[in-house]
Amino acid sequence: MKKLQFLLLLLPLASASQTKNVVSAFRVFPKIDKSAEFEKAFTAHAQKYHTGDWTWRVFEIQSGPDAGGFQVNEGPLTWEQFDKRGDLGAAHTADWAKNVMPYTADRGTSTYGEFSEELSTVKLTDYADKIIINHVYPKPGMILKVEEMTKKMKVVWTEGKESVAVYRASYSGDPQFLVVTRLKDGLKELGADFRKPFPERYAAANGANSWTDYLKDYAYAVEKRWSELLFYRADLGSK
Q1: What secondary structure letter does DSSP report for 65?
Q2: Which of 15, 25, 193, 205 shows its CA 20 to 30 Å from the CA of 157?
Q3: Is pLDDT above 70 for 208?
Q4: Is the domain of 59 the same as that of 140?
């Protein structure tokens, strides 16, 4: 009986210690002719209203279909924390609507992602200032297959000392894996002479014919993939 009572006492602690592995990201785009005004208003808003749990890490999107926009990351937090967030108050909402929205283009996206330590080679908060995001969309029924493929990729990333954080998109449109390569040494990591060619490294890590097999699995299991380059903008985010 005493043991049962002790376990019941632990239940609130278990609830309170949910893993902080959820990241929220939204994208916002300034009007083409209002970039300076947007950045000034956006920065003032971030530094006044987004502190503590709701700190903003802001990246400028350098390439791909969203180039020219900004990605704002919140977290990592638990689902419970996001659930209890609310709207951060009337003053916060009014400031965004009055001071930021007039300089914002009529487009944007919002995504929740759960960090996968099993698939990653880097800790969740071990950040870098320059990143590549690969958006990988499994075909229907192929999520587990893509996870299996990613585990084989992790072996190569680990041996090549690549910092890669993998997230599963949650309740945010088509199922996808967000594979984020954190360029700790900057863009020179993209040079052809920085590491051996990836197919060569993959075959060395997974077997002689493994790269050919990977390409077959890729064609079978992946619907589409696209990538983009982002740079961290500390000057625009929370302080």
Answers
A1: T
A2: 25
A3: yes
A4: no
42-93 pLDDT, tens digit per residue, is: 999 999 999 999 999 999 999 999 999 999 999 999 999 999 988 788 999 9
Is-above-0.85 flag for pTM? Answer: yes
Is residue 162 within 8 Å of residue 181, measured between CB atoms? yes
Closest CA to 164 of 137, 124, 113, 210: 124
Expressed in angstroms, the distance from the first to the final Cα of the chain is 51
H helix runs in 164-239, sequence order: 198-206, 210-221
Which residue segment(s) compose the domain that 158 sits in?
A: 115-230
Examine the domain organization and report whether 132 and 108 are in the same domain: no
**Tally of domains in the chain:** 2
SS3 22: strand
What is the rounded CA–CA span in Å between residue 172 and residue 109? Answer: 9
